Request: fold
Amino acid sequence: MANIDALTQQFIQQYGGEADGIAVFHAPGRVNLIGEHTDYNGGYVFPAALTFGTTLLIRKREDNKLGLATTNFPLSKQFAIDEIFYDAADDWMNYPKGIVNELKQTGVEFNNGYDLLYHGEIPNGSGLSSSASIEVVTAYALLNMEGLPTDTVKIALLSQKSENEFNGVQCGIMDQFAVANGKKDHAILLMCDTLEYDLVPFNSGKYKLVIGNTNKRRGLVDSAYNERRRQCEQAVEDLRGAFPELTLLGQISLEQFNSAKHLIKDDTVRARAQHVVEEIDRVLQSMAALKANDLEQFGRLMNGSHDSLRDLYEVTGPELDAMVAAAREVQGVLGSRMTGAGFGGCTVSLVHEDSIEAFKEEVGRKYTEATGLTADFYVCSIGNGVERLV
Ligand code: GLA
Reply:
């Protein structure tokens, strides 16, 4: 957790004035345990909030300006609240700007401005949802400061809308939902079509979740991500020959899919759809495994998820594959997979607590041998969703 006194001093250095009137909010990053590339197909996901994320200090201004600054980079700027536009040169600031724009569209009337100072602890481009964390903490903080309701499901939806429309990234709902609604020591079983969800205690006993950062920047991720979405839409169109009402792949069972998949003409499109339908089934199987306290089965399902993302959905790449292969060779590892969009970013592994040091050493060494890159590891605890700290 960030040092709030030190951040308060930085806030005063940036914006002047006194500590009085500064409120402090926090939103986490997230890790997805299983259920990848299923959210925009109306399927299940099973993410959890991390204990680290974005801390935001905020204070009212007398005028109608928005001051944006971060402890992470020197870039800071002021904007008039009635003149908020996307500008690539504004970099990370387009996330908070998008939220202000979206709040205005939902009818929030700002009578005054705000100064905001962000402190981000999520490594950039790591696939642990730093952008969703910024969006959700901004929306929550502004609504709270305006004395308006802070419904965390609505906040997730408006944050996703802002990322889709203002920032032009076609993400699904998983990241914003997990960041907004997470709970300490629980993972979230979310049905992305209806947004029904369950907070499931994640008791992994002597096994810990270890995140491995490949430190491979996710270069082509946006175009490849959008291409996968289009392929899923194509599969739905073909399958309508058998299921005329179908709008999302998540609406059919694995059995129904297998009986009709010959209708999908293109081999690649069929493979993409096969991944989605089987992955949704794996999420449900993983719930049964958790209920039965069968962590070994949970680990096998994690492995199955990665292999399918590698072979059928083709979103892993050499770095993620090398890290996962090395992880599975360590004794005491029950499962290992990529997490997030893919092409780089992070893996998540279920590792016995006595094996963690060996895991870091062996996976780190083999990963560097295979790729020339240096990995980072975080032993992960599950934290709360967005909240006000001060
Ligand atoms: C990214 C997106 C999510 C989800 C995952 C893949 O994290 O932001 O909406 O689609 O990829 O599961």
